Amino acid sequence: MELFCLDFLKLKPKQMRILYKISFIIITAFSSVSLFAQTSPKPNLTGIILDENKKPVDYATVVLYKAADSSIVKTSFTDQNGIFGFAVNTEGSYFYKASNMGYNTFKSKTITLTDKNQKVDFGSAQLASSTQNLKEVSIAVTKPLIERKMDRVVMNVSTSAIMTGSTALEVLQKAPGVSVDQNDNISMQGKQGVLIQLDGKQTYMSSADVANLLRNMQSSEIETIELITNPSSKYDAAGNSGIINIKTKKNKAGGTNGSLNATAGYGKNFRGNTGLNLNHRTKKLNLFGNYNYGKTTRENIITIDRISNGTPDTYFMQSGSSLRKQQNNNFKAGLDYFIDKNNTIGVLVNGYFNRGTEASKNNTLIGPSFQQVDSTLASNSLQTNKYNNISYNLNYKSVLDTAGSEISADFDYSKYNGNDGSEYENDYMFANGNRIRPINYTRNGTPSKIDIKAFKVDYNVALSKTIKLEAGLKSSWVKTDNDLQAEELVNNVWQNDVRRSNQFVYDENVNAAYTNINKQFKNTSIQLGLRIEQTNSKGNLVTTNTIVERNYFDFFPTLFVQQTLSKNNQLGFSYSRRIDRPSYDALNPFIYYLDQYTYNKGNPFLKPQYTNNVELSYTFMKKYMLSVGYSKTNDVITEVLLPDSAQKALFQTNENLAKNTSYNANLNIPVQVAKWWSMNNNLNVFYLSFEAPDLAGVALKTGKTSFQFKSQQSFTIVSGFTAELNGSYESPLDYGTLRIKSRYSIDAGLSKSLLDKKATLKLALSDIFNTYKNDISSAYPGLKYEVHQKNESQIGRITFTYRFGKEIKPARRRTTGSEAEQNRMKN
């Protein structure tokens, strides 16, 4: 790793300048701001800027002023020889100021231009090194985009220009080792089954609903994202590939203060959002709240070519598009009351109310070959959704002694209401356009309710200067009720479709206890933990009276060892056992059609999956890190695409495959290329294999080595003006029955501080070359299909943020206790 970093640091000035120019050409191309190109006539005011060693300073900022009123005339940058120039055709007196990071600003002598054709040489100017500026630069880069900590990777979203105006789901796509496909499935280090938390709380939602929640959350609400690949026993045992904890912004300053932000974006369609954050703190009371509104329109295009085996085979060529419109309202309000210096009680309320529609058009050509068509199916659909959620939290915290011992408790209640409605129109025709049968009209409504109750208490105590004990209890109760009301139009009368109408009720209770003990030796830290969870679940398919009931105890041990070899070298080892219970929507057996030949259905017979994780890490100079890991999952819950031979259809569902084995290596290298240029490079290499002796009557065994590479570039142009350029590449991947082709994209952004650093203006363009897409084929023996899916990903955004008010003292942060259950719901 050291040699790799030194190769970057040994770049010659000319090489660094080439890389610098390439980066900025891309950024300035999309923003249409020609900050660095001098397209005016030949300069008649020239000069040279040198450093303290009398060597040319390239890319120094030179600003020309009118001497009469000190107004800015033009801005320029020095070239590789330190030369700058201005083309001025107005007579008068002028002076310039030159600046560069690490140097004091230089002010020139005043010259007088008596003729617009007159040429004046300011001569050479020597910049003096500035200790103060260097300190300011050091402070500015203390929070890079990516930080590596002992047990997690932290992405500082709030400092990034590229993240501006994005949704939380789009931000996750840029996190190292994280991948989000076109169907919003989230994976980390190549594995799905990630537990998403908000401010340390499980969301208790289904994977589809978590994706919907993150799609509705704006980047302006996010402070950091934590990636925890091997969590301790203190965390819920769910999440075989680890935990992603999204920390929202919380104003830590006292007095009355806040911020206002607004974003406008455009790809093929307009999108925008705005938000307000407020905080008021007195000696005894802290009040806080925020509200965010977003309006989004996005397009999705999909094509599916497949062969249905038979005598003879049938060929399907499907193409379709959908337009989704969404309006999102998110809010949070709370208070903390400081009883005394050691005891605090708080109340928190948050929720959302969202509305949306999705109009889809699909056309399927059917025939004995891809070149010959004998019939077609034209399908149109309109889906509407209404999601409302409100959560209440009551919390208490008491500091027991000066050694840091404390006890905290949380009571949570969440209520979720959703209502999805769909209308379908299917038109079957011969190749000549004549109808095979009358148009088929169907519709369905799916009201759903979810109630969540949770309680937890955590206690930690310092037994000695080197020994710390943590312990806690938690119980959660979740009930989901989904009622599919399907109808079909018969003789112009809507009639109940008994084949599809159904009600599914799911109850789950999880009780947990954990303990961790941490011992600190001179150069070694050891933490041993155990979590016990008892699960009671009951799924009831009401219409058919099909009941699936499970009750089981599980033990989840954890072990962490940190060894300091020297000042710049540390080793780490971790082991954990984890569980993933099926998400609520995966258990729901309802069938949802794209058309007659393509549909999705749940599986109420899914079992939980269990994973053993081992990871070894090496850290050099507290910033370069290499980790290697191994995991094995039994009864792995996997999304699969399978054939429906009876209907000649293709359907998507979840199944328990026998096992999944994973080997992975992650390398993270931050590099300070120059004072004005820093980068973070992340390489994630992994091998995934899946085995199932009997998957719909076929033995499945797949395995492939894949990698993901992400590089984030940050540039400081001048004081208060920064730029970013990010790129990512994901190699081909086999996942269960899916064979996924490579995916890649490039993003860019600019950020400028305004109004004495109280305001920020940011420009960003995601997926500059519009390359990010999903191309999938079959890894299931005997099944042949090709899927191409493209979401609207090339989007330009402009965001303005303004901070106001007085800041006095830090305010208390608050997280709640019902996170683990909400990761599995709909918004």
From TrEMBL:
<keyword id="KW-0472">Membrane</keyword>
<dbReference type="Pfam" id="PF13620">
    <property type="entry name" value="CarboxypepD_reg"/>
</dbReference>
<dbReference type="InterPro" id="IPR041700">
    <property type="entry name" value="OMP_b-brl_3"/>
</dbReference>
<protein>
    <submittedName>
        <fullName>TonB-dependent receptor</fullName>
    </submittedName>
</protein>
<feature type="domain" description="Outer membrane protein beta-barrel">
    <location>
        <begin position="400"/>
        <end position="802"/>
    </location>
</feature>
<dbReference type="Pfam" id="PF14905">
    <property type="entry name" value="OMP_b-brl_3"/>
</dbReference>
<dbReference type="InterPro" id="IPR037066">
    <property type="entry name" value="Plug_dom_sf"/>
</dbReference>
<keyword id="KW-0998">Cell outer membrane</keyword>
<keyword id="KW-0675">Receptor</keyword>
<dbReference type="InterPro" id="IPR036942">
    <property type="entry name" value="Beta-barrel_TonB_sf"/>
</dbReference>
